[in-house]
Amino acid sequence: MSFPFSCNKCFKKDEEGTLQLHLSRCGHIICQNCLGSNCAVCSRPVKSLPISAKMPREVAEYFIDPLKYYQKFKQIAKFHREQQRLYAQHYIEVQKTEYKKLDEEMQGFSKLEQCLQSDLKAEREKVRKCKEQLACFERRLENGYYEQQPQSAKLRFNSAVTNGLKPFPQRATSLPTTTTLSVSSLGTENRKRLLNANELGQKMTLNKILELSFKSNSSKLY
């Protein structure tokens, strides 16, 4: 024991190691000379324990120099602070990583939003044009425009409206590939063949007539 404890009644110290001191239940130190049935300080019933090296640990700690505990507490506090610092550093790194991921996701969402806005603008423009065309068709119907057109134009318009196509007529760009000969431009025999063919209800082309004429001339030569 670092501090020289003494009796709380007579204040004698165990300097020579011959004076036995006792620790009462009420927290007072009483020497063997002042010890009685009641505490010499507070007069409470005494239940004491001899102060020696054989005391229980939880009782002996009261007689240890507090400076030793203070140094120990400083080491314990330093250890706890270091553990807290390491955990806080790890937590900050984790939060930075999560924030970076969220920032990348937000950038992706921003790009997606821009694309969707662009698509929406294009679709709205298509809807606007369709509405304009529909309004034009309705005005023409109200004014009787399609009633004045030929029957073929009406059929094309009705088919276009039904199938969702543009009701504009298309001009033919191809020409007939075969040409019918006139009777005056043929020879005597060919005119006879043409007349016979017309009587049978057939139409002969220039190539067919020339082929027949060539065969006839060839047979005469042989």
Automatic annotation (TrEMBL):
<dbReference type="InterPro" id="IPR042123">
    <property type="entry name" value="Zip3/RNF212-like"/>
</dbReference>
<dbReference type="GO" id="GO:0019789">
    <property type="term" value="F:SUMO transferase activity"/>
</dbReference>
<dbReference type="GO" id="GO:0007129">
    <property type="term" value="P:homologous chromosome pairing at meiosis"/>
</dbReference>
<dbReference type="InterPro" id="IPR017907">
    <property type="entry name" value="Znf_RING_CS"/>
</dbReference>
<feature type="coiled-coil region">
    <location>
        <begin position="113"/>
        <end position="140"/>
    </location>
</feature>
<dbReference type="GO" id="GO:0000795">
    <property type="term" value="C:synaptonemal complex"/>
</dbReference>
<dbReference type="GO" id="GO:0008270">
    <property type="term" value="F:zinc ion binding"/>
</dbReference>
<keyword id="KW-0863">Zinc-finger</keyword>
<keyword id="KW-0175">Coiled coil</keyword>
<protein>
    <recommendedName>
        <fullName>RING-type domain-containing protein</fullName>
    </recommendedName>
</protein>
<keyword id="KW-0862">Zinc</keyword>
<dbReference type="GO" id="GO:0007131">
    <property type="term" value="P:reciprocal meiotic recombination"/>
</dbReference>
<keyword id="KW-0469">Meiosis</keyword>
<dbReference type="GO" id="GO:0016925">
    <property type="term" value="P:protein sumoylation"/>
</dbReference>
<keyword id="KW-0479">Metal-binding</keyword>
